TrEMBL record:
GO terms for biological process: peptide transport; transmembrane transport. Pfam families: ABC_tran, oligo_HPY. The keyword Transferase does not apply. This is Peptide/nickel transport system ATP-binding protein/oligopeptide transport system ATP-binding protein. Residues 12-260 form the ABC transporter domain. It comes from the Bacteria. It is a peripheral membrane protein. InterPro entries: AAA+_ATPase (IPR003593), ABC_Ni/Peptide_Import (IPR050388), ABC_transporter-like_ATP-bd (IPR003439), ABC_transporter-like_CS (IPR017871), Oligopep_ABC_C (IPR013563), P-loop_NTPase (IPR027417).
Length: 343
C-alpha cells in the first residue's frame, strides 16, 4: 500500500436523503472518507446502515426523486462528481469508476446478449474495433470463470444462473480497467469456491493494475483477508474506520465491538455461539442530533443523548465516532456534560 500517494477518491460531507410519503429518510449523514491508489477499503455494517446508498451517491446512480444528494463533494480526477453533468458522469463510469451492483438484474439489460453488454464499454471507452472487443469480451468471461465463453457471449442474461450473472457483472465492471472498483456485496450469491476465485482475481488485478477497490460485505472474514482499511457504518454515518488489523484488534466504537463479537472467529477465538446485537438499526427521519447507536449501546451515558459524536482520532489513521474513550475508560473531554450516568 502506498501511504503517501494522493487519494484517487475524496468524499467530503456527503448527505443523501430520500423523500418518501412518510417524510424524509436521512440515509447518509455527513460521510467523509478517501481512497488511495491501489488501496482496498472494506465497508461493513448491518442492513440499512447506508453502505449502498453512500456508494451509489458517489457516481449518480440513485434515481432522483426519491433520492437527493443534498450536500458534499466527491473529488475524482480533478472533478467534483456531484457537480458533473449526466454526460460527464457516463464518461467516468467504466474507465474511471466501475460498479458491481448488489443485485445483478438491476444492471444487466435483459434484451441484449451478454456479449453485446461486454463489448459496449470496450467500443465506447477503449477505442476498440468490434473484432478486438469480441476477443476481449471472451477473455473477460474466461477471467471470471465462465466456461465455454465464446458460445456464452451469444446468450441473454436470463440464460445464466444467479451466480453466473454476478460473474458477468464483475466482468463488465472490469472491462475498462477502472481506477476505482466499487463492489457492493459482489460474491453473496456465489458458492464458496467461486467466491474464493473472485477474491483471488480481484487481489491479482489490484496488484497488476493498481486498481483501488471499495468492497462492501457482511462477511468480516473476507474483510480480514483482503482489506487494507475497514470502514464501519451505522445509521448512515461512519462509526469507525482505520487499518483493518488495528480496528479488528482494538475496536473503539461499541458498535464495532458488538459486530466483531457476532463473529468471534475473526479475532482468533472459538465461535461456539453466534452472538446477535440486540435491538434494531434506526430509520432516521431527521439528521441525527444524538448518537444513533445509543438505544442499543451498553456503554451509553448522559452525553450520548445530548449530541451526535464527531469522529475522534484513536490511533494512526484510525478514528471512532463515540463519546466514550476506551483507552482511559472515561468520557472524552469533548463529550457534552450531562448529569445522568446512563441516558
Ligand atoms: N428508495 C428508497 N426510499 C426510501 N428509503 C430508502 C430507499 N433506498 C434506501 N433507503 C433507505 O436508506 C437507508 C440505507 O440503505 P442502504 O441500501 O444504503 O443500506 P445497506 O447498508 O446497503 O443495507 P444492505 O446491507 O441491506 O444492503 C435505509 O434506511 C433504507 O431504508
Ligand atoms: S456515543 Fe455513547 S451511545 Fe454512542 S456509541 Fe459511544 S458510548 Fe455508545
Ligand atoms: Mg446494500
Amino acid at each position: 500500500m502506498r501511504e503517501a500517494a494522493q487519494p484517487v477518491l475524496e468524499v467530503n460531507g456527503l448527505k443523501t436523503i430520500f423523500r418518501t410519503r412518510g417524510g424524509e429518510v436521512h440515509a447518509v449523514n455527513s460521510v467523509s472518507f478517501d481512497l488511495k491508489p491501489g488501496e482496498l477499503l472494506g465497508v461493513v455494517g448491518e442492513s440499512g446502515s447506508g453502505k449502498s446508498v453512500t456508494m451509489m451517491s458517489l457516481i449518480g446512480l440513485l434515481p432522483s426523486p426519491p433520492a437527493e444528494v443534498r450536500e458534499g463533494s466527491v473529488m475524482f480526477d480533478g472533478l467534483d462528481l456531484l457537480k458533473c453533468t449526466p454526460a460527464q458522469l457516463r464518461a467516468v463510469r467504466g474507465p474511471g469508476v466501475g460498479f458491481i451492483f448488489q443485485d445483478p438484474m438491476t444492471s444487466l439489460n435483459p434484451v441484449f446478449t451478454v456479449g453485446y453488454q461486454l463489448r459496449e464499454p470496450l467500443l465506447k471507452h477503449m477505442g476498440m474495433t468490434k473484432a478486438q472487443a469480441n476477443v476481449r469480451a471472451k477473455e473477460l468471461l474466461e477471467l471470471v470463470g465462465i466456461p465455454d465463453a465464446e458460445r456464452r457471449l451469444k446468450d441473454y442474461p436470463h440464460q445464466f444462473s444467479g451466480g453466473m450473472r454476478q460473474r458477468v457483472m464483475i466482468a463488465i465492471a472490469l472491462a475498462c480497467d477502472p481506477k476505482v472498483l466499487i463492489a457492493d456485496e459482489p460474491t453473496t450469491a456465489l458458492d464458496v469456491t467461486i467466491q474464493a476465485q473472485i477474491l483471488e482475481l480481484v487481489k491479482d488485478l489490484r496488484q497488476k493494475l493498481g486498481m483501488a477497490i471499495i468492497w462492501i460485505t457482511h462477511d468480516l472474514g473476507v474483510i480480514a483477508g483482503i482489506a487494507d482499511r475497514v470502514m464501519v457504518m451505522y445509521g448512515g454515518q461512519i462509526a469507525e474506520q482505520g487499518p483493518v488489523k488495528e480496528v479488528f484488534a482494538h475496536p473503539r466504537h461499541p458498535y464495532t465491538r458488538a459486530l466483531l463479537q457476532t463473529v468471534p472467529s475473526v479475532r482468533g477465538e472459538r465461535a461456539d455461539t453466534l452472538n446477535v446485537i440486540e435491538g434494531q438499526p434506526p430509520i432516521l427521519r431527521a439528521a441525527p442530533s444524538a448518537c444513533s447507536f445509543r438505544d442499543r449501546c451498553t456503554q451509553r451515558f448522559g452525553a450520548c443523548a445530548a449530541a451526535n459524536p464527531a469522529r475522534y482520532d484513536v490511533g494512526p489513521g484510525h478514528d471512532a465516532a463515540c463519546f466514550w474513550d476506551f483507552d482511559t475508560d472515561a468520557p472524552r473531554a469533548e463529550a457534552p456534560v450531562k448529569e445522568a450516568a446512563h441516558g
